[in-house]
Design goal:
alpha+beta, two-stranded antiparallel sheet, 8 helices, 14 strands
């Protein structure tokens, strides 16, 4: 069933002694707003975790294949779309032929039908073999920490070397030095949007939406690594509108979720914060669902 309601949501998650999203342009330090000191986690990072969870949960089979995944060759996937709609002969002709008629629209619909992340987040599938462009109904903002973070840099050692040449230089000591960056603790807040109008265009269904909520709640539990420390979803608040176009501005809904510090000194756990919901300020025609709180 296609969506008949607009949604907004607030996702809270935290990190302890880990690097939630390193910046490769800054020596893999945790991302930070240089002006406020608040930590950042990109929307791309969060979408990657959703994709990984869906692929794990659904076994990478249609209609839950993942388009953007490790080692994928995207144009090869585009060719599958033309083969799937029975127009593989267009792959043998000039590129311009692939941009004419209904073939591109049919290929785009095939991609939406078979790939969960395309009908959820959208994609530009017009590179090389043209399958058009898809605007996804689900969009996420950068996550931003409630308080400024302090990135710690730790020196680490490994009691082994990679090559015999390194061992000879160290006279058999065989030690390798390295560095590791962590955030002692950070509580992050992310906002998201679900458009029923765009969902109808991509085929994003109520079942797909349920899988998305499940992914947000559980994705950190299947994304463990030595670099990320302890990461957990802390709360998920979903605002459901009574209509396709919505019944209130998203900003007013987000303002009803308040987070404040309740302890002095550096925060080191979720208990250092109080999360409150001003339910009396939620406009009519909107229902709040606390899926994880």
């Amino acid at each position: 069933m296609s969506l008949s309601n607009r949604y907004e949501f607030v996702l809270l998650f935290d990190v302890k002694d880990g690097n939630p999203n390193g910046d490769p342009d800054a020596g893999n330090l945790p991302r930070v707003d240089a002006e406020t000191g608040q930590g950042l986690v990109t929307d791309v990072c969060l979408k990657r975790k959703v994709r990984n969870f869906v692929g794990l949960h659904k076994g990478e089979t249609p209609p839950y294949e993942i388009y953007v995944k490790e080692k994928a060759i995207l144009n090869k996937t585009h060719e599958r779309a033309y083969e799937g709609i029975g127009k593989s002969d267009l792959l043998k002709g000039d590129d311009k032929k692939r941009k004419r008629g209904d073939a591109v629209d049919e290929a785009r619909q095939w991609m939406c039908k078979n790939f969960y992340d395309i009908r959820t987040f959208g994609a530009v599938v017009s590179t090389g073999v043209n399958c058009g462009q898809v605007r996804g109904p689900v969009q996420l903002t950068f996550a931003r920490s409630i308080d400024p973070i302090v990135a710690h840099e730790h020196s680490i050692t490994r009691c082994a070397v990679a090559t015999e040449a390194e061992a000879q230089k160290q006279d058999g000591d065989n030690r390798t030095m390295g560095r590791k960056n962590t955030v002692p603790y950070g509580l992050y807040r992310c906002h998201g949007y679900v458009s029923a109008h765009l969902a109808q265009q991509t085929g994003f269904s109520e079942e797909d939406l349920g899988l998305f909520w499940n992914s947000l709640i559980n994705m950190f539990d299947h994304d463990r690594s030595a670099a990320r420390g302890e990461m957990s979803a802390c709360a998920l608040y979903v605002f459901k509108h009574d209509s396709v176009l919505g019944n209130a501005p998203a900003r007013k809904l987000f303002d009803t979720i308040n987070i404040e510090r309740v302890t002095d000194g550096p925060a080191r756990s979720l208990s250092d914060y109080r999360i409150s919901v001003a339910e009396d300020q939620i406009p009519g025609g909107v229902t709040l669902h606390a899926m994880l709180a």
